[in-house]
Amino acid sequence: MRTTSITASVRRSALPLLGSAALATTGLFAFTTPADAATHGVSWARACAVVTTPGQEYCNALHVTSVTEHVHAEGVTPNATPSGYGPSDLLSAYNIPANGGAGQTVAIVDAYNDPNAASDMATYRAQYGLPACTTSNGCFKQVNQTGGTSLPRNNSSWSGEISLDLDMVSAIAPNAHIILVEASSASMTNLGTAVNTAAGLGATEISNSYGGSESSSDTSYDSSYFNHPGIAITVSSGDGGYGVEYPAASPDVTAVGGTSLTRASNSRGWSESVWNTSSTEGTGSGCSAYEPKPGWQTDSGCSKRTVADVSAVADPATGVAVYQTYGASGWTVYGGTSVASPLVAGVYADAGAHSASIPASIAYAHPSALNDVTTGSTATCSPAYLCSAEVGYDGPTGLGTPNGLTAFTG
Q: What is the rounded CA–CA span in Å between residue 124 and residue 165?
């Protein structure tokens, strides 16, 4: 498989999170950091290859390859401290109460099958003292795109995405039920069918950590797959920097951008800026070419749908701990806006029932209930707020990051 390298600027403050190891790119599209890797030992790779054909999607997970991975030994004491942010870090950073999600059902929609999904999630939850979520206790369900039990073919690249998604929902909403709906392929029609299945199975939140090129077909996809009033549907804004992906551009979803999250000596204890690694890697944002502007979005520099709505951690240099054994060898670290989408879906689950037809609109009614991200940019663009952070709304981080549940409570 072809690998592609880019030069990146990794933030020094994030480096204690990560270890050092040789860059492994088997089955991955590699994004190394030549200038910084030698000094700081941080490198990562795309879990899924970028696809530019409209109607074909790819996952937005970035696998940090400079962390030595360790398999959790069954039946022994959990590893003391996996690299990357864990549940307590994320709950602290976003002021989220512990033990949330009761009564809600979060669906994860991904392509292909992860044969170790249930067991890997069980290890993650045991490591952090979270309640068990299994098929036997009725908490977890793994189905194909039509709800059946005949699962699609295994895929190690998408398995990293699946592990990441399940672990982030577990971290933020540990008492929610989880449905993993696996599409037969990464086409929009198959993934969209999986979204409909998730809604039909009773999901109250649906996370989609994938995207692809916009096209004139997108508005028809909206009505076919994402028109589920009252269900919080979150979508990653993309990892390619300034530019819009679908389905993040759909006005029926919450488009979730990405930040760099670091500890700070302020009253919050954390600080965030726009995630930007290079001109071709960072959080996606911008003005849709096709999608109409929803009535609840009022920025004046884009006459159509603007991405994003809200944001959360995505920088792989400030990444999260994930347990994955199909396509990886245990504890590892992930970044990308694939972190942010399931994280925000978990926040919606913590907030409870959604009275708004399109839950994305709730944040626009409560902008002061978010952490406003005001520093960083991914490009130079006009108007500047579409690619640069500023006070109030901006494209890369939307209205900001979670600060409790108010901005997600209908």
A: 12
Between the two ends of the chain, the Cα-to-Cα distance in Å is 46
* List of residues 6+ apart from 62 with CB closer than 8 A: 31, 44, 45, 46, 47, 239, 316, 319, 334, 335, 336, 338
Please tell me the number of Cα atoms within 13 Å of 339 on its side-chain side.
33
What is the predicted pLDDT for the residue at 30?
44
Tell me how many degrees the CA angle 348-351-352 measures, rounded to the nearest 5.
Answer: 95
Tokens 């790779």 found at: 45
214: amino acid identity, one letter: E
Domain ranges for the chain: 12-71+81-408
Q: CA 156 to CA 154: how far, in whole Å?
A: 7
pTM recorded for the entire structure = 0.90
The β-bridge relationship of strands 281-292 and 304-307 is antiparallel
User: Nearest CA to 235 among 345, 348, 141?
Assistant: 345
At 196, phi and psi to the nearest 5?
Answer: -60, -40
- Which residues have a Cβ under 8 Å from the Cβ of 402 and sit 6 or more positions away? 94, 95, 96, 310, 312, 344, 347, 370, 371, 408
The 3-state DSSP class for residue 262 equals strand
In CATH, the number for domain 12-71+81-408 is 3.40.50.200
Residue in the structure block whose two tokens are 């994402």: 226
pLDDT of residue 11: 34
- The label of the residue with tokens 């045991």 reads 126
- Write the CB contacts of 305 (distance below 8 Å, at least 6 apart in sequence): 249, 250, 251, 287, 288, 291, 292, 293, 294, 297
How high is the mean pLDDT in each 10-residue block of the chain (410 residues)?
Answer: 32 36 35 35 89 96 85 58 93 98 98 98 97 98 98 97 98 98 98 98 98 98 98 98 98 98 97 94 98 97 98 97 95 97 98 93 97 98 98 98 95
Q: Which of 169, 201, 212, 194 is nearest to 344 (CA)?
A: 169
Distance CA 80, CA 99 (A): 21
Nearest-angstrom CA–CA distance, 101 and 246: 28
**Sign of torsion, CA 278 282 288 294?**
negative
- Cβ–Cβ < 8 Å for 274, 312: no
Beta carbons within 8 Å of 253's beta carbon, 6+ residues apart? 208, 226, 233, 234, 235, 247, 360
